[in-house]
Amino acid sequence: MKVALDLHIHTLLSPCAGIEMIPINIVTRAQELGIDMIAITDHNAVGNVSSVIDCAKIYAPELKVLPGMEITSREEVHILGILPNLESAKELEAIIHRHLSKVPERDYITEQLIVDKDANFIKYEEDFLLGATDLSVEDISNLVHSFNGLVIPAHIDRESFGLIYTLGFFPPNLEVDAVEVSKFATEKDIELISTSIPYRVPIIFSSDAHFLDDITKPRTFLDLEEKSFDALKEALRNYKF
Ligand SMILES: [Zn+2]
Ligand SMILES: [Zn+2]
Questions:
Q1: Residue span of the structural domain in which 18 resides
Q2: How many angstroms does the Cα of residue 108 sit away from the middle of ligand 2?
Q3: In this structure, are strands 64-72 and 78-82 parallel, antiparallel, or unpaired?
Q4: What's the CA gap between 180 and 206, in Å, rounded?
Q5: CA distance 222 to 211
């Protein structure tokens, strides 16, 4: 079946995301736009993933929600890790938090909200999520793959936190499952990116939504056996160029 994807959506757990990014708003907006599968990818954390999954089960049963995280490397590159299940996402989060840089002087904690499926406040995330880890892009790729997850460098067409601009090149031995371009990327941008990557890799669009209006009509459709992580992994592995 043809499945519309948006594998990069933030919740109100990300300090830079809007307060309206609560589970019900995300799942209903995604469903209205005809998106079949989303990944919740807050910065270096997965605290709201289970709430969005639970909310979708009730209010958007056709929508598949995958656990994910947007991990910051020590070079300040953003890399999406999409995980097969919640348990592995939480285990990965625990490791990432041990590698996160220390907290800034300013008060940040009230900007990092963990809520339940009905958006009731549960707690604040105490680790500062906008810091970088001390892990290289290769370390992050290996770590996510050790959990059988998918490694997708985020918004690779962007100068800030995009892999190619930040490093100045695409590491030839870096193992990724796809690369993501922002929803604004043009055909020309994509052509340029393809030539910068030393091997063939699927290029997908995501919204990188921090606010509700950022979630827009999907631009990436994949032919999947079913709406599941395993089917997504299979489709990326067998991607026809
Ligand atoms: Zn990012
Ligand atoms: Zn993001």
A1: 2-237
A2: 18
A3: antiparallel
A4: 7
A5: 25
- Expressed in angstroms and rounded, the spacing between residue 8 Cα and the centre of ligand 2 is 6
DSSP designation for 25:
H
CA angle in degrees (0–180, nearest 5) for 232-234-26:
5
Rounded CA-CA distance 109/93 in Å is 17
Instruction: Give the number of whichever ligand sits closest to the CA of residue 41.
Output: 2
Rounded distance from Cα 133 to ligand 1 centre (Å): 14
Cβ–Cβ < 8 Å for 157, 203 = no
How many angstroms separate the alpha carbon of residue 14 from the centre of ligand 2? 9
Q: Which pTM was predicted?
A: 0.97
d(CA 154, ligand 2 centre) in Å:
7
Which listed ligand is nearest to 162 at the C-alpha? Answer: 1
* Number of domain units in the chain: 1
Span from the CA of 79 to the centroid of ligand 1 (angstroms) = 8
What would the pLDDT profile of 103-132 be if each residue is shown by its tens digit?
776 778 889 999 999 999 999 999 999 999
Kindly give the distance from the C-alpha atom of residue 223 to the centroid of ligand 2, in angstroms, as a whole number. Answer: 25
Closest-approaching ligand to the CA atom of 11 = 2
Predicted confidence (pLDDT) per residue in 193-203, tens digit: 999 999 999 99
- List Cβ neighbours of 160 (8 Å cut-off, separation of 6 or more): none
- Residue in 13, 2, 204, 130 with CA at minimum distance from that of residue 26: 13
Q: Report pLDDT digits (tens) over 18-77.
A: 999 999 999 999 999 999 999 999 999 999 999 999 999 999 999 999 999 999 999 999
- Which two tokens mark 38? 């989303």
